[in-house]
Amino acid sequence: MHEPFAYIYYVLEKRGLPTGMIIDAEHPIQFEDIKNQILHSSKQQPVFLKDMAYHCYEYLVKDEFFLQNLVNTFIIRNPAKSIPSYYFLDPKIIEDEIGYQQQYHLFEKIAEFSGQIPVVIDADDLQSHPEEIIASYCQRINIKFIPEALQWRSFYSKQWDVWKIWHADVTSSSKIYSGSINQYEENVTNNDRIRELYDYSLPFYQQMYQHRIVPDSTKIIEK
Hints:
Elements (H helix, E strand, L loop, with lengths): L5 H7 L18 H12 L10 H8 L3 H5 L4 E4 L2 H11 L5 H4 L1 H15 L4 E4 H6 L1 H12 L26 H4 L20 H18 L6 H7 L1
Parallel strand pairs: 1-2
């Protein structure tokens, strides 16, 4: 499932301008309805759900039962890279939509509920050491690691229709590629708004970064 809770933030509560969002009129927009849809699907088959913490943060932190029934994984990315990328497609972004604060506080709440630190993956580590990170991840959440899954044929998923313009690169991909911080002309060094968002987001990213899965090769260097 791809970002089903976006319908709460952008359609039900209208808290932001959904740049590039193609709204499905039949999609549920209430938290309980979306949650029940997920739980119903999970009774038939395993469900992989990707979403943004800011889409439904206020609802999730109050729903211990739901959070306890998920295998929670947090993917983080250096805001010096993620914010210019977001800004390129949506220059009107606000702090909420960057989402680091909500992500970190949700991380804390899940740790509090479960008594365990949730799994954290940093995008740079994933791009630099995909096989090592995914193998460690699979071990952490107790599923089989399939190396062949790190290569795929380019394809387009209907689930991406809602946010089509945000998936231009992934539709032509065939593996996890390494990225570059210099691909956007406007960045933290020359754009005041990007710098402001970066300064706001960095402390939350740094807190979560301490808990990431660390590649063995990086562990040696860090010692």
